[in-house]
Specification:
This protein is of the alpha+beta class and about 260 residues long. Helices cover about 15% and strands about 40% of the residues. The protein is built from four helices and 14 strands. It has a four-stranded antiparallel β-sheet with strand order 3-6-1-14, with no helix packed on it.
């Protein structure tokens, strides 16, 4: 399916603020970027680099005063996400080198504290996809989606205590529980068609059966129509904006629509 996604941001800065954005997706498995555009008003010079994971990062200095940024992308996306209950756990000895750091605890994903919880949630499951799907279903059933209950310092363990959070928190729990089972897991940010309420979205992927599979605990069932923008160990790696100074976000508007050919 053809998807057009846009992100509009309105900022105010008292002084110029160096900033890194992650708003431009790349073509890859499950998506082909046909067109993308990034506009800043007033115009400022911008450079781009790829981070450790290959995510495209836009580097600029937000000017003093009001500044607006609009990112628009058109991509051909998979209508559905792949599901394979037979995908088996990959022994650590067989994992590619690049997968190993996705097994480790990270800032928001304290997997070293959740061994008992992950074992209980996945009891009776075959190792691999079935375990991860059991984790996804458990999060969907036991964690309440509620804005304003978490902030940028909230970790997976924090949310497991309160049982409330938003998409990034759901992803952090899923990642943590997977890593506790020695399943590589990573956080993904991007756009999801027909997300309600509409916003920038986050989900997680697990490496099983020799490849990455998508899991989204905020949704009732597997859904396609996704544009992956960035991925990393957790939210610290995939922030859509990183400001090196004081910035006020006045407005943010997200739109994701299907284009009928």
């Amino acid at each position: 399916m053809l998807i057009q996604a846009s992100c509009f941001l309105d900022f105010t800065c008292e002084f110029p603020v160096p900033t890194i954005f992650m708003l431009r997706p790349k073509s890859g498995i499950g998506q082909f970027v046909m067109r993308d555009e990034l506009q800043v008003s007033p115009y400022v010079a911008m450079t781009e680099f790829a981070d450790t994971y290959g995510n495209l990062c836009q580097r600029l200095v937000l000017p003093a005063g009001q500044c607006q940024l609009r990112s628009t992308v058109v991509a051909d996306c998979a209508d559905v996400i792949d599901v394979d209950y037979g995908a088996a756990w990959t022994p650590i000895t067989d994992l590619p080198d690049g997968m190993l750091h996705f097994l480790l605890p990270s800032r928001y994903c304290e997997s070293d504290k959740l061994g008992d919880a992950s074992a209980e949630i996945t009891r009776g499951c075959n190792t691999g996809y079935e375990q991860v799907e059991a984790i996804r279903q458990w999060i969907h059933t036991h964690i309440q989606y509620e804005y304003g209950t978490t902030d940028s310092s909230t970790s997976a363990c924090d949310v497991l205590e309160t049982k409330k959070g938003v998409c990034r928190d759901f992803a952090h729990i899923g990642i943590s529980l997977c890593r506790a089972l020695d399943i590589p897991a990573r956080m993904v940010t991007g756009y999801l068609y027909e997300l309600d309420p509409m916003d920038l979205h986050a989900w997680f992927e697990a490496y099983i059966g020799g490849r990455w599979y998508c899991f989204d605990a905020t949704q009732h069932e597997p859904k396609g129509g996704r544009i992956l923008v960035a991925y990393g160990r957790d939210a610290a790696d995939v922030a859509f904006a990183t400001h090196f100074g004081a910035v006020t976000l006045n407005d943010m508007q997200i739109s994701v629509e299907e284009i009928i050919a």
